[in-house]
Every structure is written in C-alpha cells, then in structure tokens.
Design brief:
By secondary structure, this protein is α+β, with helices and mostly antiparallel strands. The protein contains five helices and eight strands, in the order ββααβββαβαββα. Helix 1 crosses helix 2. The radius of gyration is 16 Å and the shape is globular. The relative contact order is 0.13.
Length: 198
C-alpha cells in the first residue's frame, strides 16, 4: 500500500524505533486492511470478531461521517501498523456515564497483529505514546479519557505507564470497564518531561 505524505496529520520520531506517522482512515481503501486487524483473535476487545468486510466498511464510513468521532491509521516507517479512534466522550461511548469536562477527548487504539518473531520490543508503548502525543497536539485537549474492559490487564498496565489513573468501574451495555483519565501533566510526568507552563 503506497502512502501519500500529503495525508499525514501527525508525525514523531521515536529515538529507538524510528518514524511514526498518522493519517485519516479512508473507509473504502482501508476496509480490507482494517477487517484483517479487527477480526484477528488478538483484537477480541475491539468487539468486532464476527464482522464482515462490508460491516467494517460501514462502521468506518459512519465514523467518517460523524462530527464527534474520527479514525486514523498509524504508520511505522511508512507501513500501516495501528489504528486510532478519537471521539468526544460526552457524546460517544461515555455519554451520561461520567462527569465530562471541557477539553476531554476519548480514544481507542489497536496494534496490527504480527507474529511474535516480528514484534519489536517496546513497540506497543511507542504506539500509545504516539497516540497520546497526537491527542495532546491539540491545545484544546486537557484530558484523555478511556474505558477499557476490566479484563484487559495488558492495556491497563500500558495505560498506567503513560500516565492514566483508574477513576471508577463502569457497567456499560457491552462490557464492564475501568474509566481511566490522563491529563496533559500526568502524561508529561510519565514521559519524564518537565510540566508545561501555561
């Protein structure tokens, strides 16, 4: 798949793992790629295991049309490697379930499945760092809000590593979730960077 650099909306270089870039999802051209990712057994918490290719296309067409939800493909060294969804948690996923504040943004991310031999050490941490940098690149964003499944221990550990703290357990229709929040300052502290001055 050739990537056009004009589509890139965010980029950062990880000193150990190289270049990470982010571009919007194209529901038509990316549906086949995404279908393979979201239906993989390792993507069980994405809740699309039984989705057909048209289901995936429809899902990402709906996200593209929404004013409060969008999706991105993450690239590593120019190759599609992860999926990001960004949403307004006061309107999507968490509407009426938590005390929303101005400057809140919600996110999901999914690392593309690879076999163990090709997995780079620290790759998932670099991906979530890229996601958080993308979100906080918007100066209006003050907090990132997530609601992972309580059973997803790997993502809880990863979230904690980049600054998230669990606030409460929520009963959602599709899962029990841990509402977790990370402010810009919490993220910077977790990165070992000095706090930003305002």
């Amino acid at each position: 798949m050739s990537e056009r650099t004009s589509d890139i909306v965010y980029a950062r270089t990880d000193e150990r793992l190289g270049r990470f870039e982010v571009r919007p999802v194209d529901p038509f051209t990316d549906a086949g790629l995404l279908h393979g990712w979201v239906t993989d057994p390792k993507a069980a918490y994405w809740l699309m295991q039984g989705a057909s290719l048209p289901d995936v296309e429809r899902e990402y067409m709906a996200i593209a049309a929404a004013g409060n939800h969008d999706a991105f493909i993450g690239l590593h060294e120019g190759v599609p490697a992860f999926l990001i969804e960004r949403y307004d948690p006061a309107e999507v996923e968490l509407k009426g379930l938590y005390d929303a504040r101005p400057g809140d943004i919600g996110m999901h991310f999914l690392v593309a499945p690879v076999d163990g031999a090709r997995r780079l050490h620290g790759f998932t941490r670099a991906v979530i760092t890229t996601v958080m940098e993308l979100l906080f690149d918007d100066p209006s964003v003050r907090r990132v809000v997530v609601e992972p499944d309580v059973r997803n221990t790997a993502v809880h550990a990863l979230n904690e590593a980049v600054g998230f703290r669990i606030v409460e357990k929520l009963a959602k229709p599709e899962k029990d979730a841990y509402l977790s929040i990370c402010t810009r300052e919490m993220f910077r502290a977790a990165q070992g960077a000095p706090h930003e001055r305002h």
